[in-house]
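Researcher: Here's a chain I'd like modeled. Treat it as a single chain, no partners, no ligands.
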Amino acid sequence: MKIVVLAGGLSPERNVSLSSGCKVCAALRERGHETALIDLYLGTDQPLEALFSAPIPAELAKIGREAPDLAAVKAARSDSANQFGPGVLELCRMADVVFLGLHGTCGEDGRVQAAFDLMGIPYTGAGCLGSAIAMDKDLTKRLAAPILAALGVPTPRWELARYAAGDIPALTARLELPCVVKPSASGSSIGVSIARSREELSAALTQCLAYGGVCVVEQYIAGREIQVGILEDRALPSIEIIPKAGFYDYENKYQPGAAEEICPAPIPAEWEARLGEAALAVFRALGLSVYSRADFIVTEDGTPWFLEINTLPGMTPTSLLPQEAAAAGIGYGELCERIINASLEARAVGN
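Model: Modeled as a single isolated chain. Structure tokens:
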């Protein structure tokens, strides 16, 4: 099969995406596929056919401790308005399928999926509408909360805040503590803060201005962080994350050894079943397809609190979904192929 792995872009999760793309590209080549890796935003000036055998740049597989400098990325191209870099669409049209290694805005929010739908380019993962809904943390909760409540699975109280710098003092005085402040449409814990004091809350709101001044302020729930992947409409074994310091932020997610990840999670069978049922309920409620990963906090009494769902989970060397798949007996290369095959089936029926 001829496959293009699309990664990078202008998302704050750009570096994570490139690392995922490198690993996916290498795995698919090992499985015998003609596979090319390309950056959504930077594109290429090389002959397109040559990309299917070009070496995978080793430096792209590494994820630094800090989020990327997107201004510097923009400066590398004279035509900064077009999200698709030179040669990207032409290369994607050459492929049997495009494996979306994209994360965050400009890739996971449905816009690329919608463009590909219009051009008849098959791609992996959920369709444009489900992707757009799941990327919006507020909308996800609005749609999922009633369904989850019927299953006895709560979601923390939340409020969508749209604000400018001048609104921060009033918000800081009014919002309940402790709380979690997170950009409404971002992932990889970029811009996420836990605020336990008014000073921390003010700093968290100020930080989120850099992500558009639209954030979800969520009730803080203390408990165990457990995530559940979905593959082909079935729950994978859950995974528990225990950061060695702080919480599961950007650095703890992508720096090897920064967090302990236990899969399957050491929880009772009835907890596992309930988490899987809840993850599937959200997956289906949002009209998702192929695969995803849902995030929960589980309290001491075994109650799972739903946080959010990710439609293009990371595929980096430290990512959680590949670990869950491995616990189910699915190797990394097989996982990539199953995602492709399930995606082609979903696109064929308009999902």
